[in-house]
């Protein structure tokens, strides 16, 4: 047996809201975690799989991309927002899993007038996505100062932290309940299967896994 085949294949999944939708998709591709994975009291971060040569690690969504980009995990599932924000050259996202649909948008207070974009040479934006946000405003010829937050971005305008936010929107309820309106859609988002490019070339199990996900996916990513 080759050296790669002896090693455990590591599959990274985000611990939060994508997971419930991801588990049936993973199961159709033959990736099934041991029962302890579903035990809320279990504090393990790494779990055995039905396939003896694979393990599943449960990490934060942004960290899924980092584990896979650095080759610490070979495969993972993550939102296209995270892929776009990091822009890691080591990542390849071959399959759109058609789950975790939402959008990344610019929002501002429903009441009051933030400075119009055209006149603003400088703009402060609260976001978890500083890279996507800077690129977005650069395309409009506007320099955005991004204040990085990890959640509850919707509080920033009313507390004077930033005039606008860039955040994920699904139903729009969070914006509405916090006195904000969606002004501009930056990108549509869905969850993708990601693989480490080197692992894809060197470990045949990675390519086989991609094919199994692809066979069950509604559409392929470009
Ligand atoms: N309102 C939403 N509707 C649908 N999908 C969403 C929504 N909010 C976030 N997502 C998707 O889910 C991903 C977050 O995944 P998840 O909640 O599983 O991660 P997490 O590890 O809990 O994140 P965090 O680091 O914020 O704790 C986002 O990157 C996005 O792709
Ligand atoms: O349009 P909606 O359906 O209201 O969804 C949008 C909300 O969902 C996400 O937050 P999440 O619930 O993941 O919490 P977070 O603040 O921890 O990121 C996002 O950051 C928005 O706050």
TrEMBL record:
It is an enzyme of class 2 (transferase). Residues 60-214 form the ATP phosphoribosyltransferase catalytic domain. The keyword Nucleotide-binding applies. It is found in: Cytoplasm. Pathway: Amino-acid biosynthesis; L-histidine biosynthesis; L-histidine from 5-phospho-alpha-D-ribose 1-diphosphate: step 1/9. It catalyses: 1-(5-phospho-beta-D-ribosyl)-ATP + diphosphate = 5-phospho-alpha-D-ribose 1-diphosphate + ATP. GO terms for molecular function: ATP binding; ATP phosphoribosyltransferase activity. SUPFAM superfamilies: Periplasmic binding protein-like II. Its EC number is 2.4.2.17. NCBIfam families: hisG. Lacks the C-terminal regulatory region which is replaced by HisZ. Catalyzes the condensation of ATP and 5-phosphoribose 1-diphosphate to form N'-(5'-phosphoribosyl)-ATP (PR-ATP). Has a crucial role in the pathway because the rate of histidine biosynthesis seems to be controlled primarily by regulation of HisG enzymatic activity. This is ATP phosphoribosyltransferase.
């Amino acid at each position: 047996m080759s050296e790669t085949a002896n090693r455990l294949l590591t599959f990274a999944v985000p611990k939060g809201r994508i997971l419930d939708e991801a588990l049936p998709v993973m199961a159709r591709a033959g990736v099934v975690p041991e029962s302890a994975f579903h035990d809320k009291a279990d504090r393990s971060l790494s779990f055995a799989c039905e396939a003896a040569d694979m393990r599943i690690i449960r990490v934060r969504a942004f960290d899924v991309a980092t584990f896979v980009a650095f080759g610490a995990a070979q495969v993972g599932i993550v939102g296209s927002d995270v892929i776009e924000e990091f822009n890691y050259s080591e990542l390849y996202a071959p399959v759109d899993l058609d789950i975790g649909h939402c959008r990344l948008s610019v929002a501002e207070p429903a009441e009051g007038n933030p400075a119009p974009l055209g006149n603003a040479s400088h703009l402060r934006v609260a976001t978890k996505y500083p890279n996507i946000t800077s690129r977005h405003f650069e395309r409009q010829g506007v320099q955005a100062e991004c204040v990085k937050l990890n959640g509850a971005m919707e509080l920033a305008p009313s507390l004077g932290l930033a005039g606008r936010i860039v955040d994920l929107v699904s139903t729009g309820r969070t914006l509405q309940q916090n006195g904000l309106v969606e002004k501009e859609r930056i990108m549509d988002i869905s969850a993708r299967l990601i693989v480490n490019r080197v692992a894809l070339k060197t470990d045949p199990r990675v390519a086989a896994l991609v094919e199994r996900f692809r066979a069950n996916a509604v559409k392929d990513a470009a």
